[in-house]
Design brief:
It is a single chain. This protein has helices spanning 2-13, 20-54, 59-62, 67-101, 107-132, 141-155, 167-174, 177-189, 191-197, 203-212, 226-250, and strands at 218-219, 222-223. The chain has 255 residues and is mostly helical. It has one domain. Residues 23-189 form the ABC-2 type transporter transmembrane domain. One of its GO terms (molecular function) is ABC-type transporter activity. The chain crosses the membrane at residues 26-50, 71-100, 106-132, 144-162, 231-250.
């Protein structure tokens, strides 16, 4: 979809910059990794709802497995699936970009990207768990999955750059964990390309451009960094898991 509909729009706005097309391609790949983490972990987590509605989860009572252990099993299964799917998307995307634009990434970037993939899977699975903890009908999963897939693309800044959104839209995006995952991927994968594409720009203009394209989110007047985004994602994961445990205790009769 990107190469068919979106690439021309992005490259057109960057045509005055050196290797603008390469920048746009890497920028989109970073966003797609964030979206992939959310959509795949969500789809994997829907099995939780299916098992609850079909009565399969009652079998766990016979083994005296705690509710928390059961839910954590679904959580970690979703995390693993999310990691594998993101790695697949990264490898395919890297292959395409290498063939089309001659783009390459260093081993250090690949290692950091792998760590970011793990973080993205953790926070996405935690968000999926809390979203699905209160869902009681499997018939609603298809429409809910469609909504999640669409929203994750917009909230990660894949379809529309930050600069094109009003202030309220940017504020909403900053409340979504996937936006920090997307920014983290962009920081890592665009580290070398930024030095080429924006070499002529002054430091102030470079900061403005990074803010416009979601390479760092503005919090308290400062753009987030790789370290701050990683910390935010870790705390978001912890907070969402705690929220899921609270919901589980409230709805303990559903298991």
């Amino acid at each position: 979809m990107y190469f068919a509909f979106l690439k021309q729009n992005y490259t057109e706005s960057l045509k005055s910059l050196k290797e603008g097309a390469q920048f746009a391609d890497i920028w989109l790949l970073a966003g797609l990794l964030s979206v992939t983490g959310m959509t795949t972990t969500f789809q994997a987590m829907t099995q939780l709802v299916v098992d609850k509605t079909t009565g399969r989860m009652r079998a766990f009572r016979l083994t005296q497995t705690s509710r928390l252990s059961v839910y954590l099993g679904y959580f970690f299964s979703s995390v693993i699936i999310g990691i594998l799917m993101q790695i697949a998307v990264f490898m395919i995307g890297f292959g395409i970009l290498s063939a089309v634009d001659g783009i390459g990434f260093s081993l250090y970037q690949v290692l950091l990207t792998t760590l970011a993939i793990i973080l993205n899977s953790l926070v996405s699975a935690a968000l999926s768990l809390i979203l699905l903890s209160g869902v009681k009908k499997s018939s609603s999963l298809t429409s809910l999955g469609t909504i999640i897939g669409t929203l994750s693309g917009f909230l990660s800044g894949v379809y529309i750059p930050m600069r094109a959104l009003p202030e309220i839209g940017q504020t909403i995006i900053k409340c979504y964990p996937g936006a920090y995952s997307a920014s983290l991927f962009r920081h890592i994968l665009l580290a070398d390309q930024l030095k080429i594409t924006f070499a002529p720009l002054s430091p102030d203009k470079l900061l403005d451009f990074k803010a416009d394209f979601g390479i760092g989110l503005s919090l308290s007047g400062q753009l987030t960094t790789v370290v701050s985004e990683s910390i935010i994602l870790l705390f978001a994961t912890l907070g969402l898991l705690i929220g899921s445990v609270i919901i589980l205790k409230i709805n303990k009769k559903n298991l």
